[in-house]
Design brief:
The chain is built from 15 helices and no strands. It has about 400 residues and is mainly alpha-helical. The longest helix has 30 residues.
């Protein structure tokens, strides 16, 4: 859709890096609360179920923004939508900074989700449109690094600040607010890459998977669902597992453990380009399955090494599977339905982030956190196996 209204604008290196910086800053803000959840639990008396619900409303904000505003940047321009995303991110910082209870925290998470939903679609396109001609080879890599790297740096930054400085529930958001203001300046200096149509039509993105795409979409969606379940696990219940199962309460360690998966996903998304195209998605599923087994070892044997290795291996697998699945689905979709199919693919991913972790919170109250974690790993492993079976059988049928 962007191609019908976008202009051939090639920014300089500073402009391009500024847009990528703004992308990274926004994504950092979405995962910052992860290592702070134990402090919120202690201060406000939240149960583990409440923590997972707080996390899940973030996905609601993401999905709403993706569906409602996903195509607005083609009409209004990239910069206005990026400013809107940064505004939502800054408002989330202010809300968390002054949070005094559950309702305010839920509002902060919804605002954070809205900022991520706006940036996930718009910023990826905007950054690629601003790549200098001499940087074309690294443009996609930098866009990926800004997205997944930002998600990984968020909990790491907040965890380190919480350990080294006072005001652990305020300082991370103050620092991020300052970064968001710098990001606003970067977007202000960037040129607009879209020419507004004479008649602006703001439409909600419809969801659709045509029959001819389902053979590709179903295994890819199962794989991405499994991968994003692990992402939800990393950013919502990692603090509980490290503290209550493994016995670690250091906020910096929690932040590193949660962020590792996203840094590894960035690596996986980069590596997938070097793999045979037909085998990228099966390889991603296999690596994700191996990572989940390491997670199970870490939880079952109470071994931090297993937990950390699992985050790295599962992150690489998730990155390979997600990038390969998205590429396969987009390539198989008819041009007139491509936006709808890709949007449906992202909705599957963000549902996977939210609903399963709510299940963890509910079941953990009944059978305990350790056994719940093992059952979660089993479910992800079964999904990986199902996707692998469908993928490996598809060429034989084709």
């Amino acid at each position: 859709m962007a191609s019908s209204t976008s202009r051939a604008v090639s920014g300089g290196p500073a402009t391009f890096l500024g847009a990528a910086f703004a992308f990274a800053v926004t994504m950092i803000g979405t995962t910052m609360p992860t290592p702070l959840y134990p402090i919120y639990q202690q201060q406000f008396g939240f149960s583990q179920l409440m923590i997972t619900l707080i996390f899940a409303v973030y996905a609601v904000g993401v999905i709403a923004a993706l569906l409602i505003t996903g195509r607005w940047s083609d009409q209004l321009g990239r910069r206005p939508m990026l400013f809107a995303g940064l505004l939502a991110s800054a408002l989330s910082d202010l809300v968390f900074w002054h949070a005094g209870g559950l309702g305010v925290i839920l509002l902060g998470r919804v605002l954070s989700g809205i900022s991520a939903g706006i940036f996930t679609g718009t910023a990826t396109v905007a950054v690629m449109e601003l790549v200098p001609d001499s940087w074309q080879r690294v443009g996609t890599l930098i866009a990926t690094a800004a997205n997944m790297g930002g998600l990984g740096l968020g909990p790491m930054l907040a965890g380190v600040l919480a350990v080294l400085f006072p005001m652990p529930l305020a300082l991370p958001y103050i620092v991020h607010l300052a970064l968001a203001l710098v990001a606003v300046i970067c977007i202000w200096r960037a040129p607009e890459t879209v020419k507004r149509p004479e008649r602006i039509r703001l439409r909600v993105q419809k969801l659709k998977v045509p029959a001819e795409v389902r053979g590709v979409f179903v295994p890819a969606a199962i794989a991405v669902f499994a991968g994003f379940m692990v992402c939800g696990f990393a950013t919502s219940v990692t603090p509980a597992f490290l503290g209550k199962v493994l016995g670690y309460s250091n906020h910096a360690l929690i932040g590193v453990a949660a962020g590792l998966l996203f840094i590894a996903s960035m690596l996986g998304q980069t590596l997938q380009q070097k793999l045979p195209e037909a085998r990228r998605l099966p390889i991603g599923c296999g690596v994700l399955l191996l990572g989940v087994l390491f997670f199970a070892w870490g939880i079952g044997a109470a071994q931090l090494a297993g937990f950390l290795i699992g985050a790295v291996v599962a992150g690489i697998g998730q990155g390979i599977a997600f990038r390969a699945g998205l590429g396969a689905v987009a390539a198989a979709s008819p041009a007139q339905h491509k936006a709808a199919v890709v949007s449906t693919f992202f909705v599957v991913a963000y549902v996977a982030i939210s609903l399963p972790v709510i299940g963890i919170g509910v079941i953990a109250n009944l059978i305990g956190l350790k056994l719940t974690g093992l059952l979660f790993d089993l479910l992800v492993a079964l999904l990986c196996c199902a996707a692998l079976i469908l993928l490996l059988r598809r060429p034989a049928r084709g």
